[in-house]
Structure formats: structure tokens, C-alpha cells
Amino acid sequence: MELKELCSTVAEMARTLGRELMQKRAEMAFDVMTKGRNDFVTTLDKYSEQTLVQKLSELLPEAGFIAEEGTRTDRADRYNWVVDPIDGTTNFIHGVPPFAISIGLLDGDEITLGVVYEMSRDELFAAYKGGGATLNGKPIHVSTRPTVADALITMGFPYANFSRAKGLLQAIDVLMRTCHGLRRLGSAATDLCYIACGRFDAYFEYDLKPYDVAGGSIILTEAGGKVSDYRRGKDYIFGKEMLASNGLIHSELEDIIDPLLSITNS
Predict the structure, then answer these.
(1) Which CATH number goes with the domain that contains 48?
(2) Torsion sign over Cα 161, 166, 167, 168
(3) Residue 20: domain span
(4) What is the dihedral of CA 235, 238, 239, 244, to 10 degrees?
(5) Using 50, 70 and 90 to split pLDDT, how confident is the model at 160?
């Protein structure tokens, strides 16, 4: 199956499942469990992942999986699905948007396909390598805001790993005095897609997992954006840190983020 067709099939799969999850959430048909400090999982996370693993396995039988809830943990030599069944589980539990299904496809070390379905707004973001990015089937592109002073920036707070808390607070101090504003939505996948369609201009966070960012990262880059780690490198899928932007303000942001957050400091 070609990437274009595969992307379309996965996108519709995510939309169908997401609408089902929204109905179950409206009925409060789920239980909540704790995995760690401020780290939660619901029975719907598990149901969503099991459903996705089954359907994605049928689409690409030779592929392995990197899935948040561990439904399957076998990795293949070439293709691997990277699955977050509900990105923003804490938001989902409390009924606070956004929360999303996020799916990425690794071909070796490269993400070649991404789908993010933000359930609360019924917004389906999708991209495949060389095909551009779309929102509900229509092409999207990053903003053209040229400086940090013009930018609306989204970010993430750690919930367990506070090893860079001091540097994070310093970066917040610099940026809140400089940019249009800072926001924290609680879903990394959605953050990246909102940059892709021009709502935000940049995003940064550490202590990330591959399934948080795999799907959204290719949607952003196919929409004209740029992604890096804090050290100006490319280790943002497995490196547990990400700086993402419309591309125009990336270098300026690196000059702020790199010295403050590229090392542990508390």
C-alpha cells in the first residue's frame, strides 16, 4: 500500500475510533488507574490502543509497535507504528480539551506518516512524507510570524521529572517578557498540529516519549515547520525533548532554550 493510501486509511480509522471514545466519555463509561506520580491511564486508553494495534497490524502485518500502554512491544527491523491511544489522558479524565489519538509510522529512524485526531473539536490532522499536511482534508501551513516577539508559544510542564525545572522557569521568565503569550494545553500531539495550522508559532517540552510526538512531528514538518532537540540536533523522537516552530523563529528560540534547558540544572 502506498503512503498516501495508507495515511488516508489510518486517518479514517482514528476518526472512527475517536468518535466512539467521545461517546463513551460522555456516558462516563471508563475507569481511571494510576501508573505513577500524576501519570494516569483509563480503561478507554487501553481499549483504544488494543483497537488500534489490531487494525494497524492488519494494515501492515510486518510492522512492529511502540505503544504507550504496552499492548504490543515487539519492534520490527524496518516499520514500526508509534501509538498514543489518548494523548492528554489527564485532560480526557477531567473533560478539558484537548486530547487526541496520535499515530506515527517509523521507517527505520524516519517518521514517514502521521495522524492526529483531536477528539473534542473533531479535527483530523494527517501527513505523509512528501505529501504535505492537512486538517480535515484541507492543506495547512505554518504561520509566517518572523520573530519571537510576534509569537504565541505553547509548552509542556513536567509531571514527574523536575531535573530541569530551574532552567524551564528561567526560559518561561524570558519568553513571557518577550512573546505574545505562553500556553500549556496538555497534549503534545495537539500542540504540534496547532503549529502546523498556524494557531501557535512554537512549542517546547522535555521528558517526552516517542508516542507523544511521532505523529505530530511529521504533520508539522510537512506543513513547513521545523523540529529539533534542545541541542540543535535531530534526536527529538527518542531524545525526550523537543523544540518545534514555524521555522522562521527557530534559531532565535534555540538561542534561548539551548543554554537553559539542554542540561539538568536542579
Answers:
(1) 3.30.540.10
(2) positive
(3) 3-139
(4) 60
(5) confident
